[in-house]
Amino acid sequence: MSAEPDHRSTSGVERVVAFSDGVFAIAITLLVLPLAQARFREGHVEEDLLNLLPEFGAFALSFAVIGRFWRVHHRGFLRIARADGTLLTLNLVFLFWVAVLPFPTAVLGQHGDSVAAVLLYALSIILTGLSSSCVWWYAARGRPRLRQGAEALTHPDTDPREIRTALARGLGAVSGFVPSLGLAFLSTTVAEFSWLLAVPLTVLAARLAGRRRD
């Protein structure tokens, strides 16, 4: 008689990934609703299309942001061998903020010159990024505890430098949105352009993390 497979060995990682992908797909689809629901006046189509540019810009920005979060989540879970209750909870917190993102995106698209809209969007991205980093940090932190008999959540061949670099990229991207929290009170336009800092800060943080010795 063949032994039954131990379903506990996988700890539902596949289900976690499948559920997460579903949330990402729904969130990224909801982003386009403000554009899909737009109304055009007879004889003023060109003008109404131009008026939609801020909303389209907010849609494109959030599409790229959620797409990046999905890529990070996908790469991270390729290295995760098992999931415990804490990891599931942290992943749900992260998915909560992903699911929320269409709301600040719609507010930003319609009221991009409002300080409140800029602050709401920046804070949403920061909280989403921090919760994403918490998922990966918790999954990876079990490795040093192997000496104490704890079972690591990541695969044994996971390179510590890869863990460090992934965390640095996430925190670097988040830090690019922090300055806008103050700049928004001076100029919402400057605050929104400051979000571009996320790109060089992500690259810089990854390089610095890669140079550190294990």
Automatic annotation (TrEMBL):
Subcellular location, in the record's words? Membrane
Principal cellular location given in the protein's record:
membrane
Q: Name one GO cellular component term.
A: membrane
Among the GO molecular function terms of this UniProt record, one is: potassium channel activity
The residues that cross the membrane are 16-36, 56-73, 85-103, 115-139, 166-187, 193-210
The UniProt keywords, alphabetically, are: Ion channel, Ion transport, Membrane, Potassium, Potassium channel, Potassium transport, Transmembrane, Transmembrane helix, Transport
Recorded superkingdom: Bacteria
One Pfam assignment? TMEM175
Q: How does it sit in the membrane?
A: Multi-pass membrane protein
**Which reactions are catalysed by this chain?**
K(+)(in) = K(+)(out)
Q: Which family does it belong to?
A: Belongs to the TMEM175 family.
Q: What is this protein called?
A: Putative integral membrane protein
